[in-house]
């Protein structure tokens, strides 16, 4: 048996038209009618004996009852041969002028081969004569005594397995059966449907024992090689593996059709516009595949940069979806769609992106709750007012001016963002920020016995660059300058708290810091319950002697797991700082987004920290879901290393845990969280939050 390694596979980068197959043409004015109702197999060309049989039946209509007796049909047909000979001879003369047997089609598509078949009524010593069909057909039956399968020359097939395949395909044509022309035609289709034969000609021969029905078939060639043209992105190994099992075997059209479907399926799975547009069996058993891949001829991109495929690239539906999502994330488009249109060049498409632009600028107002308030949720309420412009200079650059104001908090921010720097092929964004804020200092320096309060004022300006560098990964680098100091409840600058703990590292009323920042973020599906990892590092640069010099690292990780209708969420965070840093910048532990059951910052404040949390959420009714949770946090014994030991002065434990339950409700502002937790001191506390935990 021939070895598969002998198969020769070649591929050519030739473009193949996506146009329909060329029409079949003949050199004669008349041709045999097509029988085209056979699905997924070859179309069959049928010429029946209806004409000659009808002539015979018309001459015997005077005694129709005899025609319905099977035992009389054979005798009547034999006796009528002489009477119908003249009509048959006239038909033969006309037929020889027009009849030409069909060979392989020059073009094979889904129904890939045209196979010839005809039905003739002859004498044993005369060649088979093909009769023209008459419209409407006749349902009169003819008794068949024998059924054989032979080659196109009327001889036995060399391969008995192919003969058995043809005989097994027959359904109506059996020895000693009365058949109609339609039943013979259907069995011809069944033989062709087996996929092993390129032509089938049924021949009826009058013998001494009755009518013998012979199916003269021509088997397909044996597969000896493959030529594939136009498959520029289809892997060669995929084609080789699809055809390797058929080497040295008779080509089966049905199997070939399955291979074509698998190739077309590969393009669909990859989201590419490509298909097998032509199949041809050449002499010597060589199969030639013609593959058409729709290439982008030109794209209407304008300011969209390199979103759409470049000229000559094979168009990908998956890439198109990603491009649409990218444009939508710009925030300036109401609707985006990509429309591929046939181009003038064969096998290419033009891609047009249609967009509906949103209103560029406008005012907005809202509210929220500050996480740094320890005297109750109502005192932490804040309101916000903002003006934003989403398409500054018509280049999708964004300007945002906002003011947030509460009983204690206040933040005024100006932010300018260019989401994609012009000329950069890495999709790098640039952001310039100026901010003036006042936030409570209670996280580290709260709970003063005289009930006095202090706030931390910060003036910040920075420049940051961000870009994606791997799928689901993004990075940010920048430089930030900060001028920060503490004030009492009357607004006067102070350098120490009630316990004489310093509030600045420099000993002045303000600390100045120039920070070099780096941050890397991994996001899974983007869903709040999906995996997430954030790593952040800040380095203080002492450009001037009084500027602070320190290094701070911080990391957060989260992993979600669905267990039936419930969702398990595990989160872990930690950080460390070395060098000379402001005490109010210490890591605060405890509160709604840390260890629940404690007030904000009540567990401890240190140079180092670790906080872990486990949570199980489950649906209750509609947008409402319940949750069970447990938290633990520790400063790893680093509280006393913070200048002035503010945590030790306030007798904070340095570590603690909490557990409890809660409900969440989806809202336009995000999830509304109401939770009740107990800490390790058996004290209970309500927590209310908006949005997901950090």
Automatic annotation (TrEMBL):
Gene Ontology cellular-component terms listed: chloroplast outer membrane
Classification via Gene3D superfamilies: membrane protein fhac, membrane protein fhac: a member of the omp85/tpsb transporter family
Annotated GO biological process: chloroplast organization; embryo development ending in seed dormancy
InterPro entries on file: Bac_surfAg_D15 (IPR000184), D15-like (IPR039910)
Signal peptide feature range: none
Stored Pfam families: Omp85
Keyword flag DNA damage: no
Keyword field: Membrane, Plastid, Plastid outer membrane, Viral envelope protein, Virion
UniProt key word Cell wall biogenesis/degradation: no
Subcellular location: Plastid, Chloroplast outer membrane
Domain Bacterial surface antigen (D15): 391-693
Protein name: Outer envelope protein of 80 kDa
């Amino acid at each position: 048996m021939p070895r598969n390694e002998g198969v020769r596979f070649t591929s050519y980068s030739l473009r193949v038209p996506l146009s329909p197959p060329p029409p079949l043409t003949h050199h004669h004015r008349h041709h045999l009618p097509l029988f085209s109702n056979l699905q997924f197999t070859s179309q069959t060309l049928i010429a029946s004996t209806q004409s000659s049989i009808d002539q015979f039946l018309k001459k015997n209509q005077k005694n129709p009852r005899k025609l319905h007796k099977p035992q009389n049909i054979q005798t009547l047909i034999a006796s009528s041969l002489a009477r119908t000979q003249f009509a048959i001879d006239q038909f033969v003369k006309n037929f020889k002028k027009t009849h030409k047997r069909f060979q392989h089609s020059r073009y094979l598509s889904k129904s890939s081969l045209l196979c010839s078949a005809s039905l003739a009524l002859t004498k044993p010593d005369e060649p088979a004569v093909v009769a023209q069909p008459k419209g409407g057909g006749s349902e009169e039956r003819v008794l068949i005594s024998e059924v054989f399968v032979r080659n196109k020359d009327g001889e036995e097939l060399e391969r008995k397995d192919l003969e058995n395949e043809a005989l097994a395909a027959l359904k109506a044509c059996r020895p000693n059966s009365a058949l109609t022309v339609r039943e013979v035609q259907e069995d011809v289709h069944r033989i062709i449907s087996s996929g092993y034969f390129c032509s089938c000609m049924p021949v009826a021969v009058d013998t001494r024992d009755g009518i013998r029905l012979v199916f003269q078939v021509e088997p397909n060639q044996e597969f000896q090689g493959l030529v594939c043209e136009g498959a520029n992105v289809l892997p060669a190994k995929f084609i080789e593996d699809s055809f390797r099992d058929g080497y040295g075997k008779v080509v089966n059209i049905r199997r070939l059709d399955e291979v074509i479907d698998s190739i077309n399926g590969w393009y669909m799975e990859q989201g590419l516009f490509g298909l097998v547009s032509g199949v041809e069996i050449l002499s010597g058993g060589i199969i030639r595949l013609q593959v058409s891949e729709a290439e982008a001829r030109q794209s209407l991109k304008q300011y969209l940069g390199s979103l759409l495929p470049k000229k000559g690239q094979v168009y990908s539906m998956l890439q198109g979806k990603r491009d649409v999502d990218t444009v939508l994330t710009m925030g300036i488009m109401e609707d985006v769609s990509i429309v591929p249109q046939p181009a003038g060049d064969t096998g290419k498409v033009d891609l047009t992106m249609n967009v509906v632009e949103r209103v560029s600028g406008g005012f907005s107002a809202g509210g929220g709750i500050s996480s740094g308030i320890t005297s109750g949720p109502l005192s932490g309420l804040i309101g916000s007012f903002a003006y934003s412009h989403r398409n500054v200079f018509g280049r999708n650059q964004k300007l945002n001016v906002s003011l947030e104001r509460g009983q204690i908090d206040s933040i005024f921010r100006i932010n300018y963002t260019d989401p994609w720097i012009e000329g950069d092929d890495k999709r790098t964004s640039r952001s310039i920020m100026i901010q003036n804020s006042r936030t409570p200092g209670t996280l580290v320096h709260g709970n003063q016995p005289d009930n006095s309060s202090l706030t931390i004022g910060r003036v910040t300006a920075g420049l940051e660059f961000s870009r994606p560098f791997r799928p689901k990964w993004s990075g940010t680098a920048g430089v930030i300058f900060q001028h920060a100091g503490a004030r009492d409840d009357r607004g006067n600058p102070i350098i120490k708290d009630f316990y004489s703990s310093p509030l600045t590292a420099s000993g002045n009323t303000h600390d100045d810091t120039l920070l070099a920042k780096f941050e890397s973020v991994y996001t899974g599906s983007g869903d709040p319950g999906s995996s997430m990892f954030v790593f952040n590092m800040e380095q203080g640069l002492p450009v001037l002697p009084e500027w602070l010099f320190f290094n701070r690292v911080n990391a957060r990780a989260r992993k979600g797991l669905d267990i039936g209708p419930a969702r398990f969420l595990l989160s872990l965070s930690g950080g460390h700082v070395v060098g000379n840093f402001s005490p109010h910048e210490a890591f605060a532990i405890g509160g709604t987004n840390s260890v629940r059951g404690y007030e904000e910052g009540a567990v401890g404040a240190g140079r180092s920290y670790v906080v872990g949390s486990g949570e199980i959420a489950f649906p209750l009714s509609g947008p409402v879901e319940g949750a069970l949770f447990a938290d633990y946090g520790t400063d790893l014994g680093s509280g006393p290393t913070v200048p002035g030991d503010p945590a030790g002065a306030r007798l904070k434990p340095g570590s603690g845990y909490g557990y409890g339950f809660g409900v969440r409700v989806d809202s336009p502002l995000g999830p509304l969280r109401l939770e009740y937790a107990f800490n390790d001191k058996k004290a209970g506390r309500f927590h209310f939050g908006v949005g997901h935990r950090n």
